[in-house]
Amino acid sequence: MVLLSMNDQDQRTRFENQMLPLMPEAYNLARWFMKNEPDARDAVQEAYLKAFRYFESFHGDSGRAWLLRIVRNVCYDALRARESEHNIISLDQEAAAEVPDSKPGPNVLAIQNSTKLRIREALEALPLEFKTVIILREFDGFSYKEISDIVGVPVGTVMSRLSRARQQLAILLQKERENE
Amino acid sequence: MNCEDTLALLDAYFDNELDLAQTLAIEEHLRDCASCRSQYELRVALRHRLKDPDLRYAIPRDFADQVRKRLAVSSRPARRILSFPSAAWVPVAIAAAAIFGAFLYANIQRMLPIEPASMVTEVASDHIRSLIGSHLVDVESSDQHTVKPWFAGKLDFSPPVRDFADQGFKLVGGRLDYVRGQNVAVLVYRFKNHYVSLFMCRERNPDADSKQKAFGYQGYNLVYWNANGLDYWAVSDAAPGALLEFAKAQQEEHSPQEEHS
Lengths: 180, 261
Known about the structure:
The complex is a heterodimer.
Chain A: H1 2-19, H2 23-34, H3 37-53, H4 63-98, H5 106-113, H6 115-124, H7 128-139, H8 144-151, H9 155-179
Helix pairs in contact in A: 2-3, 2-4, 3-4, 4-8, 6-9, 7-9, 8-9
Chain B: H1 3-14, H2 20-32, H3 34-50, H4 63-72, H5 79-107, E1 112-113, H6 119-132, E2 139-140, H7 144-151, E3 170-179, E4 182-191, E5 194-202, E6 213-217, E7 220-227, E8 230-236, H8 240-253, H9 256-259
Parallel strand pairs in B: 1-6
Antiparallel strand pairs in B: 2-3, 3-4, 4-5, 5-8, 6-7, 7-8
Helix pairs in contact in B: 1-2, 1-3, 2-3
């Protein structure tokens, strides 16, 4: 009994040492997916609880990939639930809310012209699957193989998604440059 | 290496995923080809901009502590709780997998992953955009008699509109889209937690093989068929079997007699 709880404490320490330092990356990913802070917090917390529960089943060498895969899955589930819960009505409302003001004030214009915001918006506008591979590749520096494990698609698909995502980003940025 | 091959591998090259021989071949091509080089430079520029630390969301101040506290009160279940009941299910799962496998083999031998730049890509992308963006439907109604007249005057054909709620595919509405230079009618159905988009447009190639075909694209399944002068594309992330059911239901309903009702 004592042994068991020692073992348990051991596991807990190991989990904390390995997984807690990864929280900034986990949070960033969830925040991009969920598009707001409260949902991102919920998702990361849920992912950590799940990871903790299944930690014994983790034998790979990349704890990062393992954890982010859980984060990604939790977020996708939450997005799916959000979609079916709010159904079409809220999708429409979201659309209405996202329509930019046709005559932005000077402040808004200044912000819109900022490069940082442009790339952020372009990234936000990407379809979810594309956004996922860009974040995992460009922000987190994962290899195609790791991305393939995280997302659960073949390496070839990772490559074609990245290619298409980059083309889309380039087009979006190009368009905005022309509008200036 | 020509431009086509280079562009196909350009991202892998850019991401250091190629072997030495391929890398050298691409580098050689990039030295001589300004057009491919500009594609490469575009990626360099994009990566540079994505390096901006402001694009990373910083973890909220109190959050790490909150998670740590939450973990502290959470206990890990013994692994037996997880594995014991599942062991009992193994024979059932194997049987189910076998049946499903046989079903797949019998029905969707043609469900092959195919590469982009085709109607498959366009239709799948449009479906994905409609889900992720905000343009699921233009007219929201489960009533076929509301949706069908809505298309009148917007297209040069009259798309058949049917609800299949009794078979699990509930009509959600319709939208108008533009795919590959053509106006298309899209009907949106709900199947459990999935959406199914049914694209309908005038047939592109009347002589083409009108046999039903199935495709997979980036985790989405697509079924194509042709009937009464229209091309049909059904796309969804629902299971292939479900999508085939949907296609079957649609094709049964689309017999010519029904068309004029």
